[in-house]
Known about the structure:
single chain; mainly beta; Jelly Rolls; 5 helices; 37% strand
Amino acid sequence: MKTVFEGSLTQADNRRVIPYSVEIPEGMTQFHLSFDYSPIHTEGQPYPQQISFAIHDPSGVRGEWSRPTAEGLHITPASATPGTLPGPIIPGRWTVFLLSHRIQPPIPVTYRLTVEWSDDPVATAAPEWMPGQATDRGPGWYRGDLHGHTIHSDGSWDIPEFVAYMRSHGLDFVTLSDHNTISGLTQHRSLAENGFVAIGGTELSTFLGHALALGVHEWFDWRVGTERELTMPELAQRVLDAGRFFVIAHPMAPGDPECCGCHWEHLDMMPGNAPAVEIWNGWWAEYNEQGVQLYYSWLNAGHRLVATSGTDIHERPPADAQGRAASNVVYAESFSEDGILEGLKCGHSYISAGPELLLNAVSDSGAMAMMGDTLPAETVTVTARWQNAHEDDVLRLIVNGIVQHMQTATVSGEATWTLPAGSAGWLTVELRAADGSMWAITNPIFIGITE
Ligand SMILES: [Zn+2]
Ligand SMILES: [Zn+2]
């Protein structure tokens, strides 16, 4: 049995969510979706059309199909195309949402969407992923990545390959953050073991900006800025109220049509109730520098924000790849998902592509602070310590967004500065290469700012 929907799209249909519903009868065992469209990519156009699908069954979301392929999307009780979840074909109304990210001339783009179902006998045992467990090593500094993709959205590798790559780079924890789906999280979590914490996540990929929901194991409706009555601050609040962490991702990345939805354009959230922003996404690049400066301007506007990084990796990089991605080095009270997320929420972390960079401060009355902490509005003595830097690196003390002090760093060392009472609201330390590119940056210490 099947239903065919036909339609066409023009550039006026960009950033739309178009629903197609079918009624699935009792006793079905297979659900199949195929999508044919033309032109896919026209000569002379730099980018192909970009169309994806969200699939909802009568009980809720079933997943997302980020990259429609000729084979189509298949769901049975025992198996499902990555991005969606296997399980019973529940009778009732199933809705397929066509998501139009990028429609390029020549237009119109014509398409045929075919939804099929059957009661052919199939295997019924879905894979069961048993959660793995890392032994808690107690309080300490742990290094990890907070942003990565697999075949469950637009990545090219599966979850075991993704995790093996991360572990081969010495990471203690990794978040899986596929676009608008949680279908890979149980497998990801099953790979946790001694020395490795698998953190849940998803990248809430709206048409007007992306955000990471970290620590999530549940789906959040991301469809803001469309016909739906949902705003980005409301979505962020749902994530935060569930005890998860919310990070504005790559706010200054190029946007449409180069990278659809990648540039942060939620003007009702600049940064609004966001507690964190990803200032180093992928390899260090000009848009990351702009992200750092945006972050500083938000701190100066009185927002107390945590800075994070993420490789946003989608596949194994070529062996000769040139570029510098960063990890988050987090002080966690416990080596666990909760412990690492709690350390992040406190801003007890720095971002680094290699060097160790610690920042501490003490106030005149003896109050002590690490990154993320607040000191009373007194004269403070600030100390930065670094290791594994490079001979010609430059250390910069940033106070209220301005370079207050700059010195050659050498490979390892320590620097101390005194900031008179009233001269600083917040401070960070940056370690940069001689050409100005970043090696490491701390989260801020706040002075006299309690909000
Ligand atoms: Zn993104
Ligand atoms: Zn991403």
